[in-house]
Structures are given as structure tokens and as C-alpha cells.
Design goal:
39% of the residues lie in helices and 15% in strands. The N and C termini lie close together (11 Å).
Length: 254
Amino acid sequence: MIDTHCHIYLEQFENDLSEVLYRASEVGVEQVLMPAINFDSLPKMDRLAHQQIEFHKMAGIHPTEINDGASTTEEELLEYCSQPDIIAVGETGLDYYWSSEYKEKQKESLRLHCKVAKALDKPIVLHNRESTDDLLDIIEEEQDGTLSGVWHCFNGSVEEGKRALDLGLYLGIGGVLTFKNAGVDETVAQLPIEKMILETDAPYLSPEPNRGKRNEPAFVKYTAEKLGEVLNSSFEEIDQVTSSNARHLFGLSL
């Protein structure tokens, strides 16, 4: 399995990282993709080299970091993202949950990330919280046929999901799929697995039966199991298809 969105470089994993990685290996997680929160995330990611799991780095600035005054230029973002070990641009996106005061600055940042992603032919990783219409409108405006990426932590409607797919995005399926009464399972059941990838967003959004606890890469198995239940597919098929999708999107080796 491939955990396509995991902040395993954060301090929540400092004390038991070896155990966390062992548990991930035991359930079949072979690769973990690490989105950045800001540029300070990158040296933290570098400390994870030479582990039993294959790690991949992304570079970008999370939209809530924009609220806190973070910013970048096209030249700086291009320099970071053009490094050969950076597989994607992000995470970026929009987040109106905490504040609506910074909408325009977040939109500017998202457009900048889109521009760099297209210039480098690398996928973009999109955070979306209470901002779906604006997010998809910007992707539609920026889509010139070369922009690829993923709607991380997909929790939209069927119509929003189909629009995202039409815009060239994949859907990141995480722990929210397992939440009772969230409705994500009913939505996902009506969308094609050929455009889905698995993720944890660890240490956040831990799936059932561990909701409310620290999330970790091994818990991606619970999401895979739930996705199999929703789509009436075997665990093996879910693993094979979503892993193939992730390799295709992010240009990963077998």
C-alpha cells in the first residue's frame, strides 16, 4: 500500500517512530508521501532517510500558514519544487474554516502553486476546507491540460467529485470515509476507483476504529478495508488499483 499523504516528520512521531514504521511495514505499507506544511518541513523530512519504508517529499505552503503570515515567491517555490527528490507541489489549497479574512491571499498562493506545478510537470496536492467552489473554480481557470493533482481528504458531494475528476484531479480517500454519518462512503460509492488514492493525513483524522487517537501510516489499512466494503471489492483489488493510481500520478517506481 501507499500512504499518499502523511506528516510523519512532525513531532507527534518523535518518540516512537521506529515502532510506527514497523507497524506500517507489517500491514504492507511500502511507500509514504510527505506533503509540506511550509519550507521548514523539508529538513525534517530529510531526517527520515534510510528507513525500512520508502519516503517521498513534497514542497509547498499550507493555506493556514498563509493566515499566519507565510508567503513565497514564484522563484523561491520553483527553486524548492524543482529539486529532483520533490515529487509534488503542496500541500496548498484553500481553508476558510479558521478565518475568511485571508481568502484572497490564499487564492494568490494557490494560483502560484498551480503555476509552478505546471512549469515543472509535477502534480499539485490540494487542501480544501469549506472552500470547495472557490478551489475548483481556480483549478478550472488554471487547467490548461497540463495540471494534475489530488483533492486531498476528499469529502465533497458526488457532483463536486465528478467536477474534480473532469478537471484532471484524483481523489484522496482517507479516514473520513470510515466516519459514521459523514456520508463520504455514500458519495465515494458513486465515483470511479480508477481516480482514487489512499491516504492517512497522519497524525490527523484517524479512521475508525481509532478515531480521536493519533493517526499513523498503518491505519491506511482501515480506509482500504472500508473502501473495499463500499465498492464491493476485495482488499487486494483496492490495494492494487489505488497503488497503481498513486504511482501514475506521482511518478513512483514499482
